[in-house]
Amino acid sequence: MGTRRARRCFAAVLALLGLLLAGCATGRLDATKPIGEEARDIDGLMRLSGWMAVGVGIFVAAAVAVIIVKFRAKPTDDPDDLPPQIHGNRKAELTWTLIPTAMLVFLTIYTLPTVFALASEGDGRTIKVEGQQWWWQFSYDLDEDGHYDIVTANDLVIQTGEEVNLEIHSNDVIHSFWIPQLNGKKDAVPGRIHEWRISSDEPGIFYGECVEFCGLSHANMQMRTIVLTPDDFDRWVQEQLAGKEAAQAAPAEESPEAAGAALFETHCISCHVVDGTYESAAGGNANLLAGIAPNLTNLMSRTAFAGALYETYQTGPDGDYLRNPDGSLKLNLAELREWVRNAPDMKPARADNQQGMLDFSEVLTDQDLDNLMAYLQTLGSEPVLPATNAGAG
Ligand code: CUA
User: Fold this and answer.
1) I need a surface site. Which of 130, 310, 372, 385 has the fewest CB within 10 A?
2) From the alpha carbon of 209, which atom of ligand 1 is closest?
3) Which ranges in 268-352 belong to alpha helices (H)?
4) How far apart are CA 284 and CA 278, in angstroms?
């Protein structure tokens, strides 16, 4: 009975462990496949210390097994007769103190250069990263004049081979920025600026998550880094600036876009910004304030919305983007429309407490939503996708 139960228990533990380990490689958030230099450094340290721990574990387990077998009680032993006691044996005490000490000193010496390297500044551009319940904003000061030229959300766009410096801020509570394939975690703390670096030699889309519990939708506070070749990155910058310019032009009168723009002005601009047109929310310089929502100037150029929880464009079963007959990306209109209609239904939020988008289901009619969708589709051109990774993983 006892062994059967033990066996069952063991099987259950194995199954649980299997499940847990399966969670280590979900594909999208995989720290075991480092791409960026910083992530590779961290991965190297993790592997070294991991293998050292495995070695120690095997040695200890083997020693325990040998001792159990070799010194087990024999039927001929007198139960009252104790084996020789070795308490205070200097040789043994020194051995099990000095070996671990030497291993730890070795690990420390080996780790320190990486710690300093991670803390140093890269030679690339600086991007401001702001965490807020429950999404991330990224601001680019292209000519370094203190004014942010591009302000975007969810998609952090960088170019290959550039050591990008991130200045990580928070506008409310503590968040933590993590793109596992590009670097380790860095907290975003209100009132502080934390510097962090990321880079990638390969173009691609690398997924990330907020990894500090920050309230109701912490698990839905995602982001992604879109790594482009330098040529594609330049194109992205030009398209962002062009989108900003285009957003200032008034839509043709009597069009659904114009009706949508009017609705946007009535219902959306107390939280959202469109550069050059609606700058009331952030004073025009993209200093994100608590409770303010993403800058929508180039909404259509982002691969995701709602804290990167939903795809802006439709993807197929293998993650490839679906395309219209004319080659353009297929908009995920149904979810975008539903998000505008009743956001709290798609992502837990507390709009009453300036945390997340309001429910407009009682405010906007179907016609209003169609018009708003028409207007939103005028905001920016479709995303520049990495050359070798056109899929969303
Ligand atoms: Cu932000 Cu968790």
Assistant:
1) 310
2) 2
3) 333-341, 343-346
4) 8
Count how many domains the chain has. 1
For ligand 1, say whether the CB of 129 is within 6 Å of any of its atoms. no
Q: What is the DSSP string of 323-339?
A: B-TTS-B-B-HHHHHHH
Residue 62 belongs to a domain: no
Structure confidence by residue, pLDDT tens digits, 115-173:
998 888 888 999 999 999 999 999 999 988 888 889 999 999 999 999 999 999 998 99
Instruction: State if residue 302 touches ligand 1 by the CB under 6 angstroms criterion.
Output: no
pLDDT score at 1:
45
Tell me: the pLDDT tens digits for 318-370?
Answer: 888 999 999 999 999 999 999 999 999 999 988 888 788 999 999 999 999 99
Is 210 close to ligand 1, i.e. is its CB under 6 Å away?
Answer: yes
**Tokens describing residue 116:** 């300093």
Q: What is the DSSP letter of 28?
A: S
For residue 214 and ligand 1, the question of a CB distance below 6 A is answered with yes
What is d(CA 392, CA 127) in angstroms, rounded to the nearest whole number? 23
Which domain does 331 fall in, by range? 244-389
Q: How far is the CA of 307 from the centre of ligand 1 (A)?
A: 10
User: pLDDT per residue over 53-75, tens digit each?
Assistant: 999 999 999 999 999 999 888 88
Q: Does ligand 1 have an atom closer than 6 angstroms to the CB of 212?
A: yes
Strand blocks (E) in 36-178: 126-132, 135-140, 150-153, 155-159, 164-170, 175-178
Q: What is the C-alpha separation between 2 and 13, in angstroms, rounded?
A: 16
Cβ 223 under 6 angstroms from ligand 1: no
Evaluate if pTM is beyond 0.90.
no
Residue 291's pLDDT band (boundaries 50, 70, 90)? low
Cα 211 to ligand 1 centre (Å): 6
Is 266 within the bounds of a domain? yes
Tokens of 39: 């992530």
Amino acid at residue number 180? P
Q: Is the CB of 168 under 6 A from ligand 1?
A: no
Residue 120 is assigned to a structural domain of this protein: no
Residue with CA at minimum distance from ligand 1 atom 1: 175
CATH number of 311's domain = 2.60.40.420
